[in-house]
Amino acid sequence: MSEPIVAPPVAIVMGSQSDWPTMQRAAEMLDKLSVAYDARIVSAHRTPDRLVSFAKGAADEGFKVIIAGAGGAAHLPGMVASMTHLPVLGVPVQSKALSGQDSLLSIVQMPAGIPVGTLAIGEAGAANAGLMAAAILAISDAGLADRLKALRAEQTAAVAERPA
Ligand code: RP5
């Protein structure tokens, strides 16, 4: 009997191809932890129909956590969150005009009722979104929890006591 096809638990969506260098940091963290993901470009402004069909169908597709990154007037994470009950982690991509302050404020200031878990601006936020997605999944996956703890221990061991 063939193995059942298991959908990747994490969706990484971003507003533009130009967000990918930032959002790749989330993908790298998930790779390190052997968590499967699907990365897609879904723009709130340029591909609104794609946004609606992705967000409304995400749970049925088998996703468990969504990481959404966008820059500037960054409506993507909030719009996705408005159409799914899945946890949405928002990554403010560093914009050219306002260094990501615009992205941050437009993602973090959600009105009560529709939460977006907002991370830091830029690559650190994307990396932490990957780790946070893994931590959410690790609640019900002991093997992943062990891999997450091992990654933390590795990180701790890599910090020298004194500067070189
Ligand atoms: C947003 O506009 C995207 O998330 C991106 O951060 C920003 C700029 O997009 P491009 O003009 O580079 O496609 O929608």
UniProtKB/TrEMBL annotation:
Annotated pathway: Purine metabolism; IMP biosynthesis via de novo pathway; 5-amino-1-(5-phospho-D-ribosyl)imidazole-4-carboxylate from 5-amino-1-(5-phospho-D-ribosyl)imidazole (N5-CAIR route): step 2/2
Question: According to the UniProt record, what class of enzyme is this?
Answer: isomerase
Gene Ontology biological process: 'de novo' IMP biosynthetic process
Which UniProt keywords are present, listed alphabetically?
Isomerase, Purine biosynthesis
The UniProt annotation places substrate binding at S16, D19, R46
Q: One Pfam family, short name please?
A: AIRC
Q: Is Mitochondrion one of the keywords UniProt gives this record?
A: no
As its record notes, the protein acts as a catalyst of:
5-carboxyamino-1-(5-phospho-D-ribosyl)imidazole + H(+) = 5-amino-1-(5-phospho-D-ribosyl)imidazole-4-carboxylate
Q: Name one GO molecular function term.
A: 5-(carboxyamino)imidazole ribonucleotide mutase activity
Residues covered by the PurE domain: 8-159
> Keyword Transit peptide on this protein?
no
What EC number(s) does this enzyme carry? 5.4.99.18
Q: Which family does it belong to?
A: Belongs to the AIR carboxylase family. Class I subfamily.
Describe the task this protein carries out: Catalyzes the conversion of N5-carboxyaminoimidazole ribonucleotide (N5-CAIR) to 4-carboxy-5-aminoimidazole ribonucleotide (CAIR).
Q: What is this protein called?
A: N5-carboxyaminoimidazole ribonucleotide mutase
Q: Which organism is it from?
A: Novosphingobium fluoreni
Tell me the name of the encoding gene. purE
